[in-house]
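=== Structure Prediction Worksheet ===
Name of assembly: unnamed complex
Input type: mixed (protein and possibly other molecules)
Chain count: two
Listed entries:
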Amino acid sequence: MTDASPDSRAGLSARAIAKNVTSNYRELTAAAMILGIIQGVVLNLSFVYASLKLGFSIGGSTVAAIMGYALLRGVMKKGTTIENNINQTIASGINTAGTGVVFTFPALFLLNAQAVAEGREPLVFDALPFLIAGVGGAILGVVVIVPLRKQMIDLDRLRFPTGVATAAILKSGKAGIGKAKLLAAGFAISAAVKLVMASGVLNGIWIGTKAEPLLALHGGDMLDFNMGIIPLYLAPAISVSLMNVAAGMLAGRGGLAFFVGGAIAWWIISPIAVNLGWVSANPADGLESILYGSMYSNMLRPLGIGILIGGAIMGVIMTFPAIKSAFVSLANAAKTSNSGDGTATSDELPLQVLVAGVAVGMLLFFAAAKLTPGVSVGQAILAAVIGTVWLALAALIVAQATGMTDISPMSGMALISVTLMMFLLDKNVLASMVVGVAVCVAIGQGADMMQDLKTGFMIGGKPVKQGIAQFAATWMGPIITMGALYFFWSTGPNGTGGFGPGTPLPAPQAGALMGIVEGLSTGNIPVDKYAFGATLGVVLGTAPVAGLGVLIGLAMYLPFYITLGYGVGCFLQMGLEKWKGPGFYQARLVPFAAGLIVGEALTGMGYTAFQIAFGGGGGGH
Amino acid sequence: MDSKIMIQIGRLLFTVALLAAIATAAPYTKWEALTDGLDEAKVKTGALVDVSSFSGDEDPKQPAKLKGYLTQALLLRDIKVIGQKDADGNAFSGMPEVIISGRLEGKGNEAKLQLTLSEGAKVRTIDVATDKAFPKTANAFWLSALLAAIGGVLWRRGVVKNAKAEAEAMVHDESGEGNPFALLMNLQAPLEQLNLDFGDLDNDSILERVDALIEEFIDPFTEARGKVTETLGMAIGAEILIDVAFGERMLNRVWSAASDDCYEEAVISLLPALDAFKRAHDKAEHSVGT
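=== Predicted Assembly ===
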């Protein structure tokens, strides 16, 4: 019997009813997968272009969730909340896999073009190893992070602000009119602020005198509040980004260490360094040159990267019993996956699948390295093994950082990857970039998978189905992106040079990576900062405060005006909760903050699309 | 030692030593190479000088500033520092227009920094050999880091000791706010009531009941979850937290199914949630010996 009509079930308990019903609740369906793939391809192509032009990408989860809501539920009339979650899991997976490629691979085009321009030996490269590395990275990124789901989501309860925002969208129809209004209010406010900031109408505006303004807005969304009295080396600036503040609001007290890390960097180290003459901080140079100058690039950023690594390693050590428990649980999943017994292990991806995934990923990694000119079998094995170990650690770091703050330190991890491989592979640029591509794709995938799993947790999705969905489609991301990159490159004069400095698509991230590769070739590596930072990360891990190393490392890695905005969000949440009581967070703050995140993300994306289409930014393409 | 004193001493040592470690980690990589002494370069403005050929004493008037600029020149490699002036635009006393531009040549032990200097500029020997990678503050850093680690361990042990001391009282406190064991125990009755009432509930009522359970018991439990592992240890604590998380996920599935008008899935998903919370409660009771 499958009847559960109100009359037949009246007076019965859930246990009694459940014996006589079956469910066909839609989750992993063909409709969700097809829609997810279509959205993922469109988002991937759009964001390749945006990344080459602007130097940053935007996650597609919220867009895919809203479109899924409209198409699966609105048009098909049979979509469910968890089915829409599968759609957004696939779409964001394909999109994010492309991000890892677009931040790294174009650097090779630029390095080759520069070598040719300077009359040096060209850096000839074949796409195949990079394609294989990208696909291998996409697979590895998923399989290395899935075993940590219980650690990050069940135990550490990392916030994953965008994951929470996506869940809020998926649930918005039935979450109650009060929450829906808060979500809409947050969206409207954030969208309006983003629109004003992105349009640039306020850029350069000041209060006070023009020569010495009390407040001034510059750099897009950076509010300088030096008031004419605060030294610029104390970084008196804050990001006017409500998404940033909202991420802090969702983290609350748990994210406070992030703000503390930034305060240590800019309110303690910076004055010491300036006053001892280690660096100069001439006010005439302006705030932006001080924020991004020697202090940041030679001291705080490499130290932050080191702390991130040490903190993540220590986090694994300190929570080893829990991680072991998670692995035991996965091993049990293999035995119970077909039993449908409804226990905590029956809906996990079986350990055998993950082990097989690691093996396939490493094999692809090896093949990619071996196909690169100048790489021996031994070096290819080394690249595959060390690369996979580093990739797993980097994915863990990025997933933790994203979970705690919504900010991904992908470029820092790319830098370490290329540094490590240049060292291991005798400064072979191509082989190092092969690994760099794989690692960047993998860490993006890891963070995205974990964010999607957080969304899934909040709406009751099954991790195994999300894992299958991600596996089934994510490999497409690197292929689509590389095709798009070759196309954009061919649109330049004489069929080359379609992006890079001096073109409408300056590819800033690739340009930065190219500079790093050149620096590494001359032996310019801040070894001491990495070593000291890693030690500090380990030391921070001894304190009984979860994630301290990762948060402080990330804060040093980022410009302070972003950290400060996040800190304001943390303090706001703490103040409001103290004033309004503990229930206020879930009932009011979460939907409002989710609205702020979604509002800025969608408006930013819409504005970028508008600018590219009508603003003359895409000239020549 | 009393756990609260351990926490206070550990936290203080950790904080102070950590700040010292961060401060001593900050100096530039090649700092040591810049502190051996400065020489007077008797060269004409704009001349290219291999500074490795000079030796002598540091300029007593502006040593720190000069070190800083040289450091930047070294680290930024091809930096062009167009003179060094104070905030008023005046050249530094005794060091008119120090460095005009800098360029690194060679690699590793062969590396030399070439600077284009003005007449009367103070420079010093710069050795950028790779064995000078760590700053002079390295020893102070390692010591501070060690002390901070000792402080951190002391702080952590104090917290664990304190948690164990409070465990007994916490487990038997049925109404204590922020007590995860009490919340887990108090959750059982309303969960069972939801099971019993389920046949009479429509989908909207299910949403309300699930929301209420999450808001009243599960969210506060999540906030206080750290006390579970502090009290019972990471291995057992993690098992309980994983059971609770599974129960919560299944309750969320009940909510989603009800919101999608799929009553059958809501019923089916409720059972593993009930079992998971019961299992977590039983483990907690068993672990503390009640």
